[in-house]
Amino acid sequence: MKRTLFASVALLALTSGAHAQAQLSFPPGESDFNWDSYDAFAESHDLTGQSVSITGPWTGLDAENVEAVLAYFTEATGVEVNYSGSDSFEQDIVISARAGSAPNVAVFPQPGLASDLASQGMLSPLPEGSADWMQENYAAGQSWVDLGTYADADGNDQYFGFFYKVDVKSLVWYSQSAFDEAGYDIPETMEELKELTQEIVDDGGTPWCIGLGSGAATGWPATDWVEDMMLRTAEPAVYDQWVTNEIPFDDPAVVAAIEEFGWFAKNDDFVQGGTRSVPTLDFRDSPNGLFAIPPECYMHRQAQFVQTFFPENNDANFFYFPAYEEADLGTPVLGAGTLWAITDHNDAADALIEFLQTPIAHEIWMARSGFLTPLKSVNTDLYANQTLKDLGDVLLNATTFRFDASDLMPSEIGAGAFWTGMVDYVTGVPAEEVAADIQARWESIR
Amino acid sequence: MDNMAGQKTSLSIVTNLSVILLVILWLIPTVGLLVSSFRSNEQISASGWWASMFPVEEAIRISPEPEGVTRDGEMFVLSGNLFGEGSGTVSGFGIASTDPGAAEPGQVYARFNVDVTEPDGEVDNARVEVAYDAEAQATIPTEDEDGNPVVAGTAMLDRSLQVARNGDFTYVSDSEITRAPSVYITTMQPPQFSLQNYQTIMASDNMDRAFINTLTVTIPATIIPILIAAFAAYALAWMDFAGRGFLIAMVVGLLVVPLQLALVPLLQLHNRVGIGQSFLGIWLAHTGFGLPLAVYLLRNYMVGLPRDIIESAKVDGATDFQVFTKIVLPLSFPALASFAIFQFLWTWNDLLIAKVFLPSNSESWVMTVKIADDLLGSRGGDWGILAAAAFISIAVPLVVFFAMQKYLVRGLLAGSVK
Amino acid sequence: MSPMLQGIITIFVGVGGCIAYFYGSNLILDRVIFPPRNDDHGRNINRATLVRPWLFLFPAIFALGLYLVYPVVGSFVRSLYNRSGNTFIGLGNYTQMFSEEGFRTALFNNILWALVVPAGATFLGLLAAQLTDKLRWGNIAKSLIFMPMAISFVGASLIWKFVYANDPDIGIINAVRDTIGMGPVDPLQIPFWNNFFLMIILIWIQTGFAMVILSAALRGIPEETIEAAIIDGANPFQIFFKIKVPQIMGTIVVVWTTITILVLKVFDIVYAMTGGNFDTEILPSYMMDYMFRDDGRATAVAFVIMIIVLPVMVWNIRQARREMR
């Protein structure tokens, strides 16, 4: 009874949200948004009658959120906006760009793909001054500019990608009540995390839920593990060399990071269902074990987005995936983000990129849910809930921030060989062999 | 004669049984999907679909609001009914999620703080948990979980819980109850089925639009290739001309072209001639991709038609066009119908071509794209939704099949020429 | 409502256009260009007979040429160029591919698929067609066996997750193993045999196709032949194998060929079930890995697929030739 009720309430919320999207979700002038930035933008831009088409990877709730933000853009400029989200965005954008029917603006979840398209001459550089703006106004601005700068068809570096919406990946999720009842403390270091893992086993429980299943993309959750481990066992400079293949994929540093992941995933006592179930358990189903009664596992390492897949009425909480005290590498944070690029230039597209530079464009989504931003001028009190604010803190406390390596590698590696290599590793192939195979593949595409 | 009749019945029994076996084997997977489409995601992961007809014991956490807490000496007491306004039957309860059914209804489950003597002789604090009948007194065990002896007389009640079968509970704690305590019960859940998954899909934005789009793509994309292929198949089967052998070979060869190859060049072609990503484009694409199989199947069928009918018609002065429309077409109806079904199913279930040849905005989505890219993208782990989506998308093809199957099984030539 | 209306109009225009083309062009041919009149009577009929096949064939040839031949030729040329498409490398893509173990595994698996699936589906389809033939509830049984045909490959993969899943609360195989006290296995991770578990899914889908066609063929066998055999004292097995099967051999071959061709195109099942992991890669899914990334390699894979099916094609063409004589 209760469950049905909740479900229908959720459904109601979903559908009513969909109908409300045409209106502005927060009336201008009210509460502590940066309305000045909005008014200034509205005054300087009038593009009534123009339109801009956008495609992106967001569907469902996220699509509603981005549409809510874009509604303000429409209100300010009169530009008609048409956003279409697709789960297979990566494929769609390549097809439509090649066919010459690309939308005006595309939202890329992976810099690698944007860089591919830029080198084929399918992206237009962002308006002049965008790079300078980003450098000044984003925390760690230069690194964001670098991530959005690619070679164009003639080989000249240009600034193509505007980062908007950042994800934090170095997180471990748990059920608050399960931890409370068992009396477990939040580990502050990787050493403590490993001790806790052993302690849970000694208490007769299973510490981790790890699932790599994701259809054709099976294996990707393991790449996040390895990247996080890489940042915790090697200098950030080594990480950067790994991303660009300046050090080979089978460098001892990389193999060591893979084996660090193996310490957790390849121990039958440490993972739900044993190592055998790791490669096929769907990543979307994998956190369910946290909330089962009795708990099927206690911890789940995954990016912030995974909250979407938690069951209703959960008591989820998270802690920062800690670093080795011994290694003294500070508090590295692995993250990712989506970047907006112009795939078919018009004035409205330029205006849209400028709109994304106003704090209001960030605050609207912040106040809704599931949005983090490195923009320094936003009012952080507007974050929708405490969890998001805490997530923002993880971002702020980072001594090192690195972008998801697999998203930066060429897609054959980062969205291909790396994924399947991790599945091979978990099913028993030695780390050195897996890494050497990936390196061979990398060499073959040069 | 008797013997033969006996053989016949036993053979018929064997036939019946083996068909039943075959059908059951074939149905099991689909039934699993059908049943799952009526269950919530939690139910699907809690028990197999084959067990869904039976009540299952489910463990749930309830956090009763700390309202009306009373004091009893040193202790704080909270009581009420766990089901609140609703009702239910408790089959077990506990105070930790690791053992949600630690005690039976009517019992008291209590946690005591005790002193224990560790192997090295030191005295330390530990906790022991016991279940006992409400009328009786708690018996403190002599050893804790780790096997260390409990120092007699040191037991202090930490908290206790008593739950009756109807959900009435009494929660006692040695500290003030400010936050809602977590109480676990196990209860038998009757089998539950709902149309929730179907409602979610049908209520999602633009689903009606997607349905209409699918029909708009499917119907012309089924009829046009059949028409074109029927004429071509007739020419290849019954007309004499130079290059016939080569054309047949070409059709067979083209059957195996992986159509993924053709997608991007054709889309570029469509853009050049101004069709772009549109319904017209997808009809043409389905026509092109469906033709080899259509021509191949229809030609094979038409070749098998009796030569004398066609030749006698020609002798009577009928033109090829008349022979085709008046004789061959009606005789080929079963083959046309079976190809129509396959082409219909293929275009109905197609995802790839629709993604490439239709614009990627929500107004032009067909159902497969809507389900795969929009619904699944936001609810990837939701197997109940997935199952319902699969059933919604097969409903129409099944209706078509049931409507057309009598043409299929009517038999190829039965009765038409004798 | 507009696309619906547009659709209805197109159905009329498209279908009407097709009919108008075929009817009109034949009419013009017979009445205007080569009217069978006057002195030219005989010659004109002959001329019309020469032209008419091409009238019948023109739309099909046009569509096939544009939608299949043109891309195939284009693709073959593309497969001779490198990744970015600007350097001619001859057979470089092919030699590179054959030197990779991943490709060889996919090739081997694909050949297995091309042998096992058509054989399994045709055999089971024939069995189902024969068994249900004389049954009172035969049509119901047929419909139920046919049902998987109506399910998309992605839907089918989902269905089989409920069979193969690792968790005994979801997957029925492991539930059965669980009740008889055996430990859970993951069928999709058993080396070599996992390929067969994936093939079962396609056999499950395609048996309905084989059954429908073969059942129609079985009914086409003249009653007299069978009655004669019964009078001669043949038992049901003899009737089936010695009389019926040879009679419908042609149809069996068509079904077999059609399924073989389908097998070589299906990538969805492997893609959705294992993503090509655990050594279950087949060529179409291997090709999808390269699609839109390295078109040279992707098109080269496509041509290897066409080469695999070459024997079937040659055989079919020879069959077609023989029939024509």
Q: In terms of structural class, how would the helical and strand content of chain C be classed?
A: mainly alpha
Give the N-to-C terminal Cα separation of chain B.
32 Å
Element order of chain B: H for helix, E for strand:
HHEEEEEEEEEHHHHHHHHHHH
CATH architecture of the largest domain in chain C: Orthogonal Bundle
Query: Whole-Å distance between the termini of chain C?
Result: 54 Å
Enumerate how many helices of chain B there are, as a single number.
Answer: 13
Q: Order of SSEs of chain C, N→C?
A: HHHHHHHHHHHHHHH
Mass-distribution shape of chain B: elongated
- Profile the largest sheet of chain C: none
CATH top level of the largest domain in chain C is: Mainly Alpha
Which value, in Å, is the CA radius of gyration of chain B? Answer: 36 Å
**Structural class from helices and strands of chain B?**
alpha+beta
Total of domains of chain B: 2
Verbal overview:
- The complex is a heterotrimer of chains A (446), B (418) and C (325).
- With 446 residues, chain A is an alpha/beta fold.
- Chain A is globular and about 65 Å long.
- Chain B folds into two domains: 134 residues, no CATH class; 211 residues, MetI-like (MetI-like fold).
- Chain B has 13 helices and nine strands.
- Chain C is mainly alpha-helical and 325 residues long.
- In chain C, helix 4 packs parallel to helix 8 and helix 5 packs antiparallel against helix 8.
- Chains in contact: A-B, A-C, B-C.
- At the B-C interface, helix 1, helix 2, helix 4, helix 5 and helix 6 of B face helix 1, helix 2, helix 4, helix 5 and helix 6 of C.
